[in-house]
Amino acid sequence: MNKLYLWGIIMGALMLGATYIAVTGTKGGLNDDIINILTIAGAVSLVIITVFVVIKYVRQMQTDTADGVLARETWDGIAEYENELPVGWAVTFLLTIVWGMWYFIAGYPLNAYSQIGEYNEEVVTLTTKFEKDFNEKMSNFSETEKTQYMIDMGESVYITECMICHGLTADGIDGLSTDLNNWGTHASIVDAIVNGSKGLNYPMGDMAAGFASGQDATDIAVYIMNDLSGETGSIAYDNACAGCHGTDGKGLDGSSPDLLVYGESGFIVDVLNRGKKGFIGDMPKFDRLSDKQKEAVGAYISSLNK
Amino acid sequence: MENRPLEYDYTVAKMFMLTTIVLGIVGMLVGVILAFQLAYPSLNGSDLAIAEYINYSRLRPLHTDAVVFGFTLSGIFATWYYVGQRVLKVSMAESRFLMFIGKLHFWLYLIAVAAAVISLLMGVTTSKEYAEFEWPIDIAIVVVWILFGMGVFGLIGIRREKTLYISVWYYIATFLGIAMLYLFNNMAIPTMFGVSEIGESSVGVWYHSVSMYAGTNDALVQWWYGHNAVAFGFTVPIIAMIYYFLPKESGQAIYSYKLSLLSFWGLMFLYIWAGGHHLLYSTVPDWMQTMGSIFSIILILPSWGSAINMLLTMRGEWQQVAASPLIKFMILGSTFYMFSTLEGSIQAIKSVNAIAHFTDWIIGHVHNGALGWVTFMIMAALYHMAPRVFKREIYSKSLMATQFWIQTVGVVLYFTSMWIAGITQGMMWRAHDEFGNLAYSFIDTVTVLYPYYTIRGVGGVLYLVGFLMFAYNMYKTMSARPVKESELQSASPMGA
Amino acid sequence: MFHWLEKNPFFFSVVVFVIIAFAGIVEIFPNFAQQSRPVIGTKPYTTLELAGRHVYIKNSCNACHSQLVRPFKSETDRYGDYSLSGEYAYDRPFLWGSKRTGPDLLRVGNYRTTDWHEIHMKDPASVVPGTNMPAYKWMFTNIADINTAFAEQLTIAQFFSVPYNTPVPMKDGSMAVVKMGKSVADAHALALAEARIIVADMKDQGVKDAVASGQIPEIVAIIAYMNGLK
Ligand code: HEM
Ligand code: HEM
Ligand SMILES: [Ca+2]
Ligand SMILES: [Ca+2]
Ligand SMILES: [Cu+2]
Question: So what's the pLDDT on residue B494?
């Protein structure tokens, strides 16, 4: 076989192989995404066109002979042939010009396209697709499957949004932020009682340290962990905390946090909506996330200590 | 006089050949360092006292400016002062004025380069790509450019060859294009003109300035410039070179005047419109983006026109390609030029750009052109010039052949790795998982790239090694061989 | 005609110039005025923010970070709302960048905070294992150039009518005023006041001491700038 074709095949195969690696390296591959598909089509045609065209001309170097009418002038000994334009080139040039004009004037008139319109459509399409998918799954799932599904979804949100501060293992990266493996536990309530809490930006402001201590604090934590039921800590709670959080623990209509949901998804959604400028540091708001995403990441985090 | 062969004067050409080589080494060395800093971040030396001056972010503009304004510009100047005399049939020695301008051009250029290097290391930059310099250096560059223009038009003014050769068309376009673009993009107001309410002025550092344009407008002007800096820096003058050196080295006549003509005027007309492809999906108006896209696609034809003209000039001459590494450089250079321009046209399609933009695929495209086309061509030009300028044969042909293969492998490693890295990263950024959330955190899309960054680094080292071989070969040619009696007459230095 | 041009360099150059200048005129000028009108909620940079912006530029953060959110769901999910032209009305130069080695930063103020930036800039890999962002330790000792930032404010207020000391409308219907000093000393005082708010959330003792003594390290300025990116 001609060495040339061999080189062509090697280069072509190398580039197509590279493209294959890139596509398969991504979760979901082409993902039915038109942009992915067009890009890969572009990449593949780039390789194929270049290889074919270059082979064509190199073949001419190997087999053709230089001929034609020489122009009279030379420059420093360089002469020029008066050859006609290569037909393929000239025709393609003409075609692209015609195509360009068609595109401007008739195909996609310059004022007819809006990238924001395109964006709005993309959002609708994707949102509907995922919503439909979600609802279908949910209607077929058992309760435990549903919970697990939310937790998995939450983990996926966690990794893109929260990991950067709370770490891959949610340990809070050496005290940079809250260790979420121990959040929403008996211990973290005791901590809030002993050290106070601040930064959720409630009308009531910050919660000072030391409203209770010792055995009381431990008991109150048990009481809250039991969703404000049972004997233990009940009285101590009413004395120390109800003034702000209400006897029902619901936070007096939004004046302070709802303790019934402490340790659960609902509380986390609240943190995400408010942000927290606390003792450890400063957590931004996450109003960018959808309600479903907030709920899911809440489910994931409240599952961490279980 | 007319009958005697002209004694061309290559004094200025020689000076610029030297800066081409030296700044090429500097620029590529910094490129290699950057490549490894991305692959092995500890090389940023963050615990060293000089970390501020040697970390990736400080060095990156130094790389781009050293290769663009240092290496490539020097190469353009060096070849002009060589080619210009020969195709216009006039010697620099004939005009003391032009000689003086040429030398002044060189020395001012050298001063500007020194100032640029220092200022970039100090972090003095305006952030605009390929237009980083603050106004004092801008002024120096404009003066250098005017001197270059005087050299070009001065020589044309006293020419004996009435008709301008194709290369000269391209050198003229280079001069005009860059002059217009550079001036407009660098319009700025020095902040020393600001006056406070109580009358203080010249507050702060004297060299600081603010751009005349804001936001989207600034972006528009910048990429009108940036794209065409590539056009009139990495394409037009390099085509000027190949139109001279390939036929000259091979002794073949240009395939078709008509093709040269249409490619030239087509390129001139289309290139400027294409700048919009750097701003796709940005906040510039949709119609401009669409224009940028469309013109970029049509642009492939005049681009390929020149390359095809060159390949066809060599039709029937495969034995020369096989025998001469110098011609190999130029033929492979045209091929890479074809590849990178088609790649550019495809990346300019909006949907493709949605993925390609901001990724390493663009970096791959850049270096396809920069390494495979620009640098190959400049080295080939210098190799061709050296025996004639220094009146000595090239020191080693086999070194040249080895260098060719090493560098070719280097480029292939560079662009294949960036191809994978870019497409992978672009697709990962877009990917949604089964839940409809983003499938990857940003850092996931960084860590997957490490193997490719390493491969690119290796490709870069090979390329740099090849360039050092080139430098060594040139050095030996200049210094080690005995001087020839008369100028070499054979077309090829390989002939011997 | 072409043959004639090739013999007449002057006209040849004129024709080339006209052809290349033409596209520029058509593409650049028509939308110039429209593109630079600020959208509601966009305010000029304060002195400290501007000094931080200079630190950002000095270190070519734009070599790795873009500031342009394109209208794709994948980008608005990751970074927030897509960019609007008017948001950049006070950006001289623009900092869109052309390469995302790191993430977009246009709205980083919405989802990263002072204390996080402090640790991240000092040693990025300690919070984000696997990152290739360099550490910027010297920013904790280099002193920010408030004078030049002030000079720039004066210049843009004078030459481009950037509305300092003037109410500008905010998204919630309120008006905001960005202050610019009357004198160098005044500008330093304003910057210092801003800096104090930032260092309150920081841990590095050297930086705290510097600000207490009236000097503003670069890190404080760049954090002020990044917190303002919203
Ligand atoms: C038909 C010819 C060409 C077209 C249509 C073209 C198109 C493009 C496109 C679409 C981009 C990417 C913009 C982005 O998304 O960021 C780009 C970037 C670039 N191209 Fe080309 N290209 C062409 C030829 C070349 C050649 C021959 C070179 C030579 C080196 C080159 C050098 C560059 C550079 C340096 C950049 C990067 C600019 C930056 O973002 O800093 N291009 N080009
Ligand atoms: C030894 C060979 C070289 C190596 C290893 C190298 C490496 C690099 C690296 C690592 C970058 C930064 C990429 C990024 O932002 O992720 C870069 C950018 C760039 N290099 Fe090189 N480079 C080399 C030679 C050259 C040469 C010879 C030229 C031009 C003649 C060149 C032109 C450029 C340009 C224009 C950019 C900016 C691209 C952009 O912003 O889109 N490089 N190079
Ligand atoms: Ca400048
Ligand atoms: Ca770039
Ligand atoms: Cu371009």
Answer: 47
**pTM for the structure as a whole:** 0.95
Contact C73, A288 (CB under 8 A): no
C-alpha distances (whole Å) from B278 to each of B223, B296, B365, B390 are 6, 11, 13, 43
| DSSP state letter for A82 | B
CATH number at residue C212: 1.10.760.10
Shared-domain flag, residues C123 and C24: no
Q: pLDDT digit string (tens) for A3-26?
A: 888 888 999 999 999 999 999 988
**In this predicted model, what pLDDT tens digit does every residue of B306-335 receive, in sequence order?**
999 999 999 999 999 999 999 999 999 999
- Tell me, yes or no, whether C41 lies in a domain: no
Whether the CB-CB separation of A220 and A236 falls below 8 Å is answered with yes
Q: How far is the CA of B377 from the centre of ligand 2 (A)?
A: 17
Within a domain: B428: no
Judging contacts by C-beta atoms under 8 Å, the chain C residues touching residue A160 are 78
H/E element, A140: helix A115-140
Of B414, B426, B406, the closest CA to residue B369 belongs to: B414
Mean pLDDT of chain B: 93
Whether B479 is covered by a domain: the verdict is no
How far apart CA C57 and CA C52 sit, in angstroms, is: 9
How sure is the predictor about B4, in pLDDT bands with cuts at 50, 70 and 90?
Answer: low
Q: Is residue C157 part of a domain?
A: yes
Distance of CA C192 to the CA centre of its chain: 19
Separation between Cα atoms, residue B186 and residue B212, nearest integer Å: 8
**What's the alpha-carbon Rg for chain B, to the nearest Å?**
23
Q: Which of A115, A281, A288 sits opposite C80 (nearest CB)?
A: A288
For residue A79, the cross-strand partners are: A74
Does one domain contain both C158 and C92?
yes
Instruction: Identify the nearest ligand to the CA of B340 by its number.
Output: 1
The pLDDT score that the predictor gives to residue C30 is: 66
Domain count within chain C: 2
With CA atoms as reference, the chain A residue closest to C111 would be A284
Strands B188-190 and C167-169: unpaired
Residue span of the structural domain in which C223 resides: 47-227
